[in-house]
Amino acid sequence: MLSRQIISSSPAKKLDILDIFVTKIPSNLHCLTNKILNLNSDHSFVILNVSVTVFARVEPPRLFSPLIDRLEFQNILNQRIDSKIKFKSNHDIDEAANNLTMQIPSAAWEATKPNKTHNSKNNYPIESDQIRCQIVEKRRARAKYQVTVLPYHKQLIINPLTH
């Protein structure tokens, strides 16, 4: 929402560009505009107060991420978990539950595929260093030309490799 608020220090004063306060604030935010009348100044000062609460986006908890191979996860759990456990006492139930809660995260870690992100700096280390050096040389030549304004320094900017 684009709101325009015109604030003038007096009703008889003709508005100019400095008296117009333009804001681009979403409509769900509380906005309060105040003016400060300073008799020593030709312009009216404006204070814009915006009350904002930033809501962090919380991802819901989930068992699987996109990197986990679910079939491999299931196979690992089937191999590790003993389905022939006798549940005769409370100790047997606690031990089986503890074993299951330990096996699920370890199976998830083993079934996770490595993240295949490519780092361009590692792929082309020589070229990127050469390009950085050329950029630095060109910036130095431009700074030198802005100080001296000599045609020779302008040629260094255009083609630094020939000189």
Task: Write a concise keyword list for the protein shown above.
about 160 residues; alpha+beta; two-stranded antiparallel ribbon; 5 helices; flat; disordered N terminus; exonuclease activity; nuclease; exonuclease
Characterise the protein shown here.
With 163 residues, the protein is an alpha+beta fold. Among the domains are: 70-111; 128-162, no CATH class. Helices cover 42% and strands 15% of the residues. It contains 5 helices and 4 strands; from the N terminus they run ββββααααα. The protein has helices at residues 70-80, 90-111, 120-123, 125-148, 151-158; strands spanning 2-6, 20-24, 30-36, 45-51. The strands form 2 sheets. A two-stranded antiparallel sheet has the order 1-2. A two-stranded antiparallel ribbon has the order 3-4. Strand 3 and strand 4 form a beta hairpin. Helix 4 runs antiparallel to helix 5 (151-158). The chain is flat and about 90 Å long. The model is unreliable at 1-6 (pLDDT under 50).
Give a quick summary of the entry.
This protein is α+β, with helices and mostly antiparallel strands and 163 residues long. The chain has helices spanning 70-80, 90-111, 120-123, 125-148, 151-158; strands at residues 2-6, 20-24, 30-36, 45-51. The strands form two sheets. It has a two-stranded antiparallel sheet with strand order 1-2. A two-stranded antiparallel sheet has the order 3-4.
Overall mean pLDDT: 73
* Class by alpha and beta content: alpha+beta
Helix content: 40-55%
Topology as H/E string? EEEEHHHHH
* Number of alpha- plus pi-helical segments: 5
Give the number of DSSP strands. Answer: 4
Main sheet: strands, sense, barrel: 2 strands, antiparallel
Please give the alpha-carbon distance between the first and last residues.
55 Å
Radius of gyration: 34 Å
Largest sheet: spatial strand order: 1-2
Shape: flat
Percentage beta strand: 5-15%
Low-confidence parts: 1-6
GO molecular function: exonuclease activity
Keywords: Exonuclease, Hydrolase, Nuclease
Protein name: Endo/exonuclease/phosphatase domain-containing protein
